[in-house]
Amino acid sequence: EDDSFVSTPAPVDKLLGGLLAPGFDEESCLSRYQSALYRKASPHLPSRYLLARLRKYEAQHKKCGPGTDPYKKAIEQFKSNHSMGPMECNYVVWTPYNGLGNRMLTIASTFLYALLNNRILLIHAPSDLDDLFCEPFSKTSWVLPSDFPIIDRLSSFDIHTPQSYANMLAKKVIDKHSNGSLPAYVYLHLTHDYSELDKLFFCEDDQLFLKKFPWLVLKSDNYFIPALFLVPEYEEELRRLFPSRETVSHHLGRYLFHPTNAVWGMITRYYEAYLAKAEEKMGIQIRIFPFAHISSENLLAQILNCSRNENLLPEISVEGSSTTKAVRSKSVLVASLYTGYADKIRDMYYEHAATTGEIISVFQPSHEEKQHTEKQAHNQKALAEIYLLSFSDVLVTSSWSTFGYMAQGLGGVKPYILAFPEDGKAPNPPCRRAMSMEPCFHSPPTYDCKARKNVDKGALGRHVRHCEDVSRGLKLF
Ligand code: GDP
């Protein structure tokens, strides 16, 4: 018998094109090597240079991580209240702010910043972040130790904190041009309300100056990577790391974020129960912001119009014709804090046949009603849903939502973005295909450090454009 036509399935690439290092204990974090089984192989290969830099970073993190001699030395230096220039190991401490999508995007941004600066990323992980993510780096930890000198103050850091870069510049506690003594650390305040002086962070001179500090503390609710591409010092390195700019969050997300076994259990149980058998998977992410009011009727109509215009969901047959044989099955995963949307879409395809004969099943894993970022179990569900959405072949997402950004980045999918409501109604067209799967940097700096004036960086056309959903924002493409 000639079996040459029987194709053997390609072996699953558990290490994602070399993005993941081998050698972790598989049982302690099943998602790390299993997620490849649940996704189509990514068409985007990481660059060899990125792989080399990640392996170098991992070695460096192991050498400098909590408990090591260089870490102890750096802590001693911190406690002396002075910085004496860069040390053997230098650090950037990430602090949480806002919801999980925001947190994941800023961890990814801070990690890339650490990579560019040969710093070690340590994350301040209060209990609401417990049992969400596995350690991404082998034989060490990325968690900031609980005896870190200022750990109790980190959550209160804000624009008024005297140790912020802006406030220390304004009060002349630090001077870029003198060789005077330096404080133990700089707080980088990069949240949406940041001042013009805080934004100097994105200037090359300031970047060079900040290298003198062994300790930086960073807080942000922005995916600030697009602006790093505009810092001349980093441009060439970033080009080598990411020859394809639109894959930054895709690769960094898959590299860094591995759900713990508790969350992976939720993800895989749900997947097996509701999604595994569908021939096509669609995800709809519904996020409603107080500053973007729209009634649930209007929003449902917007979602359905978008799906119809873009051929994402089939029309229904008004005669109520009965299909005898299903031609295809399609699952629709709805992620939202609210009930109602999934039920109405499900009812529609229960009461009427799809004109294409497709069988449409609609599911929503949870409806938490309110954001509760302070609750760990709530965050576990949020992570599970970001992951489940990322398994979709097609994604519809909400404007402005970092939750959706994270799902599209992990999935490597260019979403259809539901347009921001105008006067409580959906504008026309109801949605638009994103130009890239990259997240949007919502509040980028506009200051041109060389020209010393404000400019429209999105119009310069180098590496970044304005976002589809946030006109002042910037995204890589
Ligand atoms: P953003 O505010 O949309 O940019 O996204 P964030 O993730 O930063 O914050 C929203 C938070 O609200 C999430 O982290 C969740 O805690 C919660 N949330 C919003 N939408 C959903 C959803 O569809 N499912 C679940 N489980 N939680 C959600």
TrEMBL record:
Keywords: Cell wall biogenesis/degradation, Glycoprotein, Glycosyltransferase, Golgi apparatus, Membrane, Transferase, Transmembrane, Transmembrane helix. It is found in: Golgi apparatus, Golgi stack membrane. Its EC number is 2.4.1.-. One of its GO terms (cellular component) is Golgi cisterna membrane. It is a single-pass type II membrane protein. InterPro entries: XG_FTase. The keyword Oxidoreductase does not apply. Its main location: Golgi. Signal peptide: none annotated. GO terms for molecular function: galactoside 2-alpha-L-fucosyltransferase activity. GO terms for biological process: cell wall biogenesis; cell wall organization; xyloglucan biosynthetic process. The keyword Transcription regulation does not apply. Belongs to the glycosyltransferase 37 family. May be involved in cell wall biosynthesis. This is Fucosyltransferase. It comes from Phoenix dactylifera (Date palm). The lineage of its organism: Eukaryota, Viridiplantae, Streptophyta, Embryophyta, Tracheophyta.
